[in-house]
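YM 10:42: Centrosomal protein CEP104 N-terminal domain-containing protein sequence, as discussed on the call
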Amino acid sequence: MLFDVRECATSSWLQATPLTTAIVPAWKLSSPALFPLPMSSSPATALVPLDFRVIVAGAENPKEFHSALISNDGWTSEKSSEFPLDIVLGLEKPANIYKIQIDVADENAPSEIDVQIGSYKDNQAVEPNYENASGADYIKKGVMRFTKKSAKEPLADSQLLYVDSHGQFIWLVLDEPNNRDSTRTHISLQRLKIFGYKQKYEKPREKTKAPKSSSPENQSKPKKSNASREDMRFSSEGDGLSMNNNMLAGDPLTSLRIVKKVLGDKRENALKEDKGVEASMCLRAIERMAEYEKRIEKLKSKMSEALIKGNSAMAEKHRLAMSDCRDTVFRAVHIDLLLNRSELRSIGVDSQWSSNDDPQD
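YM 10:58: structure's back
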């Protein structure tokens, strides 16, 4: 389900649905015309630019948006545009979206761009049209920021965002330009490229069992459990701590590093306040996380190698192992006792033991 990417978004772009309290962008409330881009169906096992279809370009014509974007002059919005401005792109099929590149060339660059990746359950392939784009589940992957340039600095700028995520839709939310003192309200992009791997995403398949012999020797052996390997996770729930894939939890390495940084700050504050026990707990947690961080880095490298070779089943296995490592170390250091509830939710963790206040010594 979509979540609000801006805590202070303008009401003209984000509206509440009449049946729920969920925040829904304006582009999901009315269907614009759809103009497909040429698609390439040839398989690839290396990192390549991915062809995409422009589904939404604010209130402007998607075809004109694409034509301007591939021209030498780039795209500039209409002067009457309102912000934030939604850009929605669709791929022909789900793919591993590795990175997104956006170039700007003048003073009308957006101040920042929120990036979300959308997909359906089990990465089901759907037609990249407006209806399917509005029904996909989106996860925020990061923010590109374009700083305001001084008079002596060149205006050209290029930003890369590494998302390394499976999906079929890309939702970009463009904020107003940095030239706030100007009477102009339009925004410009020079170039937009998406890089990834085109191979089809597949869930890991269970190995087929060899047919058993009808000999008395085999019949006397006890039958093994038919439990699926997909349910046998290294880190299991049931201890009051649960993880989800919302927000930062979708990237185990990023969420682990953020928690390390937060615990480092908490340790410094605990030392200043003479809370020795809390400082010691934070230090030990940081040390344990550093050990698991190295493991996750190796698994992520193996996952990328598997994707390059087109082995999506092995890549999914490494991805699950990364999440298991992150979940295991969070449980090992009792992360729900070190962080408060709001901090836990920001990294996709729910706990029945966490408090609303900072943990006390």
